[in-house]
């Protein structure tokens, strides 16, 4: 049972014949505080909107009562969770990666300062989700190919168990090795093929995303293309920077080796504090206070016959938390 606590009862005396801002439909026995029947936790699923009402149980309120809500330790509710004092309801959409329990404290205070609290638990669950959307893959008809799903394409922050993968809508020439997340085959002709990849966790919860294969007729030199977009990166002022561009970011259907080159997106050289090593695909450096802000970087991949593709990404240089970071409190 959850018990209401009258925090200011010692300094506020209510006469029996005076109206109170809280009325007990079935008053508790004399000498006992009124009680509220325990509330089952509100259920929410990560990534999906939910709404749960605060129970009035055996209480009804009159005019002049103010309702507020916070976390049980007094901190504000996370940015994705909202309390409507008029309808006594909680609503929001938990971030996809959030799992766990939230204890919300709902407080009611009347015009004379008598205050009472109740705790409403909210359980946030959910299954795996798509963490890295897959880009279309370009293949040459009549030539063998392999394509490996990037690690982290699916994620399940729940029980930490490994995800099992399976596919559907595969043509006869296409094979999938679930243990190594690898597609392979020899496409017989040009066209477009879509297959489904499904990730399932130990609770049999699953999520599916499509893989699009664009099959091209061989003709002349095939230019390199972007296979996986480069993620924007947060950088702290005064701290060492070191990150490596994944080798799968660019591909060339002819199998040509690719030469990488980095500049600012407007064509100017990189700032003096930032260095790029094409051999290891590594960026490194240490930004100072004067370098704070958004730095747009352009990375080019050129094949041996001069065909080129470019990808822009952002370095967010700050002295605090990353912009747009989800509020998991």
UniProtKB/TrEMBL annotation:
The UniProt entry, under Pfam families, shows: He_PIG
Question: Where is each Dystroglycan-type cadherin-like domain found?
Answer: 34-128, 129-222, 225-324
Report the PANTHER family cross-referenced here: DYSTROGLYCAN 1, DYSTROGLYCAN-RELATED
Q: What is this protein called?
A: Dystroglycan-type cadherin-like domain-containing protein
**Superkingdom of this entry's organism?**
Eukaryota
> InterPro entries recorded for this chain?
Cadg, Cadherin-like_sf, Ig-like_fold
Question: Which GO-annotated molecular functions does the record name?
Answer: calcium ion binding; laminin binding
Origin species: Symbiodinium natans
* Cellular-component GO terms for this entry: dystroglycan complex
């Amino acid at each position: 049972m959850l018990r209401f606590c009258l925090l200011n009862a010692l300094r506020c005396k209510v006469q029996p014949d005076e109206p109170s801002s809280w009325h007990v439909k079935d008053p508790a026995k004399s000498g006992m505080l009124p009680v509220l029947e325990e509330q089952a936790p509100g259920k929410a699923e990560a990534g999906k909107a939910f709404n749960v009402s605060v129970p009035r149980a055996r209480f009804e309120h009159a005019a002049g009562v103010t309702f507020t809500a916070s976390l049980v330790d007094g901190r504000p509710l996370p940015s994705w969770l909202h309390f409507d004092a008029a309808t006594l309801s909680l609503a929001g959409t938990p971030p996809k990666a959030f799992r766990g329990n939230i204890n919300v404290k709902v407080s009611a205070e009347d015009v004379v300062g008598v205050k009472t609290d109740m705790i409403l638990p909210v359980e946030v669950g959910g299954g795996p989700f798509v963490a890295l959307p897959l880009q279309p893959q370009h293949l040459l008809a009549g030539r063998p190919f392999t394509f490996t799903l990037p690690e982290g394409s699916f994620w399940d922050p729940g029980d930490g168990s490994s995800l099992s993968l399976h596919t559907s809508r595969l043509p006869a020439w296409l094979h999938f090795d679930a243990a190594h997340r690898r597609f392979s085959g020899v496409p017989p002709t040009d066209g477009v093929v879509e297959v489904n990849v499904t990730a399932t966790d130990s609770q049999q919860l699953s999520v599916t995303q499509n893989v699009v294969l664009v099959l091209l007729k061989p003709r002349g030199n095939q230019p390199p293309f972007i296979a996986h977009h480069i993620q924007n990166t947060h950088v702290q002022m005064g701290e060492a920077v070191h990150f490596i561009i994944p080798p799968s970011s660019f591909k060339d259907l002819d199998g040509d080796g690719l030469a990488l080159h980095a500049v600012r997106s407007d064509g100017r050289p990189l700032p003096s504090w930032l260095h790029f090593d094409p051999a290891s695909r590594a960026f490194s450096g240490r930004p100072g206070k004067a370098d704070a802000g958004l730095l747009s970087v352009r990375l080019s991949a050129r094949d041996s016959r001069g065909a080129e593709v470019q990808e822009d990404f952002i370095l967010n240089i700050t002295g605090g938390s990353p912009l747009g970071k989800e509020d998991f409190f």
